[in-house]
Amino acid sequence: MAMGQQAQRSERREVLNVKGLSAGYGPMRVIHDLDLIVYSGERVGLVGLNGHGKSTLFLAIAGLTGWQRGSIRLNGAEVGGTRSQGPGRYTHLVVKRGLALIPQGDEIFTGLTVEEHLDSGAFTRRAWRDRQERKKKVLQIFPPLKKLMGTAVGRLSGGERRMVAIGRGLMAEASLYLVDEPSLGLAPKIGKGVLDALMSVELGDSAMIIAEQNVALLERRVDRVLGMHVGKLKGEAAAALAYQTRREI
Ligand SMILES: Nc1ncnc2c1ncn2[C@@H]1O[C@H](COP(=O)(O)OP(=O)(O)OP(=O)(O)O)[C@@H](O)[C@H]1O
Q1: Distance 182 CA to ligand 1 centre (A)
Q2: Which of 26, 103, 138, 142 is the most exposed place for a label (fewest CB within 10 A)?
Q3: The whole model's pTM is what?
Q4: Atom 15 in ligand 1: which residue has the minimum CA distance?
Q5: Whose CA is nearest to atom 27 of ligand 1?
Q6: What are φ and ψ of residue 202, in 5° steps?
Q7: 65: phi > 0 → left, psi -120 to 50 → alpha, else beta; which?
Q8: Calpha distance 164→177 (Å, rounded)
Q9: Can you give the C-alpha Rg of the chain in angstroms?
């Protein structure tokens, strides 16, 4: 790592600090004793084959797995621990602490318009107050949505729906954005366009983790790529899965 980069990292804040996280569903353990730190301003890629636990890691951060244990600090506050009262019991608190989860499969409501979806993403008081400003930013990132604001999402193409789902996540006043498989199910050119848009998001003091099976879409465009294999992170050292790009500082 270059000296400048090292200095820059030491000044950066830990947005996410995961220690000893295990998580799963019923008797099945999917995540195994996982550690991960993500700093403010970082865009991190998470790659790995189907079923190796990328989505489960995101769900665990949001408190949505069947069970979990271990520490998850979001902006310095503990949001992890044992979830003995069922999935989702504390998710609203994690969201208040600064999490925006953009789940795999869009989770959109076909009868609502594009604008209603975007507004629904501005769920904190501050994000709601600033929603017009935030919508403008989302429309700069996804210009095709401009003409579709009054259109019901059920009438949109797959690529447009994905833009709505991601745009809704970006409406939150979040400091950690978890984006699960943004190119999934899209034609290659459309998927690349969605990834381009995610790369253009100005993170400022926030951070983003993008889970993606298509490594080529992340290559040289994110700060780090981590590989996920059978519920464990294969850090920057695993050449086949992980590499680090160096930004000009
Ligand atoms: N809600 C659930 N209940 C039970 N098992 C689940 C649930 N969600 C995921 N799993 C299982 O957990 C394991 C990890 O799945 P996960 O979705 O986290 O992997 P992934 O790396 O994100 O892959 P994909 O890209 O397919 O989502 C798989 O064996 C999957 O079948």
Answers
A1: 16
A2: 26
A3: 0.89
A4: 51
A5: 55
A6: -80, 115
A7: beta
A8: 15
A9: 18
Query: In angstroms, how far apart are the furthest CA atoms of the chain?
Result: 52
Give the side-chain half-sphere CA count within 13 A for 178: 21
Atom in ligand 1 nearest the alpha carbon of residue 213: 25
Distance, CA of 167 to CA of 162 (rounded, Å): 8
Identify residue 219 by its one-letter amino acid code.
E
Ligand 1 cavity residues, CB under 6 Å = 25, 30, 48, 50-56, 104, 181
- Give distance in angstroms: CA of 25 to centre of ligand 1: 9
The residue whose CA has the least distance to atom 9 of ligand 1 is: 56
Amino acid, res. 42: E
Residue closest by Cα to atom 3 of ligand 1: 25
Please give the ipTM for the structure prediction.
0.92
Contact criterion met (CB below 8 Å) for 240 and 227: yes
**Cβ(91)–Cβ(62) under 8 Å?**
yes
Note whether 56 and 31 are within 8 A (CB).
yes
**Which atom of ligand 1 is the closest one to the Cα of 231?**
14
* CA atoms of 147 and 152, how far apart (whole Å): 12
> At 39, is the secondary structure helix, strand, or coil?
strand
User: What does the chain come to in residues?
Assistant: 249
For 196-224, the pLDDT digits (tens) are 999 999 999 999 999 998 888 888 889 99
